[in-house]
Amino acid sequence: MDRLSENARLMIVSDLDHTMVDHHDPENLSLLRFNALWEANYRSNSLLVFSTGRSPTLYKELRKEKPMLTPDITIMSVGTEITYGNSMEPDNGWAEFLNQKWDRNIVSEETSKITELTLQSKTEQRPHKVSFYVQKEKAEEITRSLSSCLKERGLDVKIIYSGGTDLDILPQGAGKGKALAYLHDKFKAEGKLPKNTLVCGDSGNDAELFTIPDVHGVMVSNAMEELLQWHAIYAKNNPKIIHAKERCASGIIQAIGHFNIGPSISPRDVTDLSDSTLDNFDPAYEVVKFFLFYERWRLAEIGKSELYMANLKAVCSNSGILVHPSGIEKHLHDCVNSLRTCYGDKRGQAFRVWVDQVLPVQVGSDAWLVKFKKWEQSGGERVCCLTTALLSSKDVTVADGLTWVHVHQTWLNEASPSSSADWLF
Ligand code: GLC
Ligand code: MG
């Protein structure tokens, strides 16, 4: 992880199902609120870590279903697999470490004798994780007997019961907490320990995360009884752990505010985006704000005012060009004209726009090159453009906002549309 030249301002380590991702929120509003906050305020100086029980296969499926950001680090299969970056480069050192006193054949052999255990799907059986379903009432007893029998066979395992149904058997050194401790050690060795770490979870396999020294923790409002019970027994007096009042990603935002560890107002909660009180030019915020406006305009969530169009033209350079993903060059002012005619065209529809990995690089005293992924979901179709924008602060004030000088877009592999006619920018 060498994206950051100094220690991260904040490292968020979040579980996915029912924590970052709310499966009871078909509009994904809390997730989209978090996304906008992260991209506007944290992406360039912080680290986003997803820590899930899912295998790489099910993790990738979830990413296709939900508008999730791309994390810097992905911890999968209950802390048994750590990968880095967009290419998901595996941490082989971690995998090797987990081989200690572990033999999945012995685990399979012993568990096959227990009729109450139902093996989970093939995708969820991993080199350092064997997973079952088991009834709540049986879980404790089976955990006890399995622990002692596997110990007799020379193994040192960790058995975790989660979600009131899942039983995972892992090497003792594994688990979400141990994986986080390993990352902390790694960053420490490089002199880059994050200034703050916030762990976020809702169920049994997340409990370990809350035991890591010095971390802040949030159990989202919808956390399961098993985690709340664990907290009541082991961590009740720790002021660095809260039980949020809000569900899922909104609970994470609430915790950032509660612990005062950084900005906690999502741009999605700001109704009047033109009313920003920035101290400095802020290209990432500018990008987030622009596409939020774009979404609201097409959904007719804001008034149909010519003033908006005039303001948009004012922040687009007169000679500014968009290289459209279809390969056609357009004047930015013509793009604004096209947008004018699209007011409310997505009204009442499942239409959402979000940006991912907004990374600005200052390329001159008054110029920034901002790279990001711009996603657009319309009904069932989801498309994305890798986008590069040149923004300039020449001859404008912070209050005016940066000028868009040049925008270049290319369809993201696997996320190109059936027809590119509908894409504005
Ligand atoms: C995820 C995994 C499953 C695991 C559960 C609890 O649902 O897919 O294998 O048992 O998390 O950790
Ligand atoms: Mg969960």
Automatic annotation (TrEMBL):
EC number: 3.1.3.24
InterPro entries for this protein: HAD-like_sf, HAD-SF_hydro_IIB, HAD_sf, NTF2-like_dom_sf, SPP-like_dom, SPP_C, Sucrose_Phosphatase, Sucrose_phosphatase_pln/cyn
Pathway, per record: Glycan biosynthesis; sucrose biosynthesis; sucrose from D-fructose 6-phosphate and UDP-alpha-D-glucose: step 2/2
MF terms in GO: magnesium ion binding; sucrose-phosphate phosphatase activity
Domain Sucrose phosphatase-like: 9-260
Pfam family of the protein (one): S6PP
Protein family membership: Belongs to the sucrose phosphatase family.
Function: Catalyzes the final step of sucrose synthesis.
Assembly notes: Homodimer.
Protein name per its UniProtKB record: Sucrose-phosphatase
Organism of this sequence: Salvia divinorum
Lineage: Eukaryota, Viridiplantae, Streptophyta, Embryophyta, Tracheophyta
Gene this chain is encoded by: SPP2
